[in-house]
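Handout, section 4.2: multi-component inputs.
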Amino acid sequence: MTHMTSQMPVPAQHLVPSGNNRLFAAGSRATLACHEQAYGPLPLHGIDGNFVGVLEQSGLTGRGGAAFASWRKFSATGQGRRGALLQGRPVVIANGAEGEPLSFKDKTLLIHAPHLVLDGLLVAARSVSASSLYVYTTAVAMPAVEAAIAERLDARRIQVIEAPETFVSGQASAVVNAIGGGNALPLDNRRRLSESGLKGRPTLVLNVETLAHVALIARYGAHWFRSAGSDRDPGTRLVSVSGRGADQILEVAGDEGLGSVLAHAGIDLPGVQAVLVGGYHGRWVKPLDYRLTPSGQAGQSVRPGAGVLHVLSTGQCGLEATAWIVEYLAGQSAKQCGPCMFGLPAMSKVLAAIAGGDRDPQLVGELERLGNLVARRGACHHPDGTLQLIHSALEIFAEDVRAHLTGNCTRMSGRPS
Amino acid sequence: MSETLHINWTRCDGRGLCTELLPAVLGRDDWGYPVIRHPGNGDGTNAAIGPDDARAARDAVKLCPKLALSLQAWAEIQ
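Output:
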């Protein structure tokens, strides 16, 4: 991280962050003064419904996992409002729940650059004419967000709501449910949140990192945003790197090579067996010549999801690591939808049997049969995300599956730490 | 007009009434929950309802003890 220390007034163009250090350019635990010194003032008065066009040019995609085009979400919320007369004004929610255990980039961003997220929230609210603004985050980041709100007059109407520390608490409809006074559990998805979300109002739920990028696009424009990353994946993204004792947050260019990101994190590449990309709903990959982007071709690129990169060492057993994660995920089912409530524990049991050395040759077939029962049968992505992880493990650790079924696995436990 | 039967999984309790009214459309899984027999595009939540099943589908929506079913015009979910 770089910290600007000059006290001299500098022309606006000199404030523009260059390279990949964009989101933390105001330094650690940035106060409003540091924030404004690093980025200049927020041109909020110039923001209106046309900002969605700037967002479209920027090519920004959501950084919370799904990588949906941000401008489409903005646009849908605006249209949802026009569609019905009695709907009320839109709601914008900054989602910092970050229920993914291996992800810590959103907490880090809220603690060190809260003003950038607040700026993005104000810009989003103004561009869709929202009247209610929320920041939804876990206890650890709340003091920093509340302190940042207290520092500025334009953020007084932003409400901060605490998110529980559960895996599904950040799912968009769970966020709306929690802020509406219910539990942080996903809702049936028949109606889109952009049409009918919080209290029936059009609702825009955006990841906090996405909003931080929105704040920078509002200041420096789409062209600047695209000056990092590639044409198909412009801008930068935060990644949470873990495993092999290297827990850290990095800001990397879009479309970066996986190996180069890990090397940059100081990880000894020959010691890497495989990498879990995208978190517990992500996939295992090896070798490391993949591009980290949501928009490439399968086989050459891997979707970063919420930016989780977890390294499995050569000596660790990937099946055991996956079995442990799936057991956790089964326990994190909201237990609302039957196929998830019963199917995930059933799959977890079979996977644990394979990982634990049960040599029944039917086990892999049973896992696939259960997977077909779970797929696409839930209100949220939890069962499908879990299936994706299991499928990738069976593919990437195919040799280990054979070793287990013949009693020959010699690796150590791969439980994520 | 073609319709789809939407299963709200957060409400469904696997009572099985719909699977009895629509045996050609819905089966039951290991735990008793409805399974769409011929899912379009792999969609396990919205079942296509042909004209022959339209009446039974309406009955299923009305009679589901958990109010977990709804009918939509096909275009609505596209």
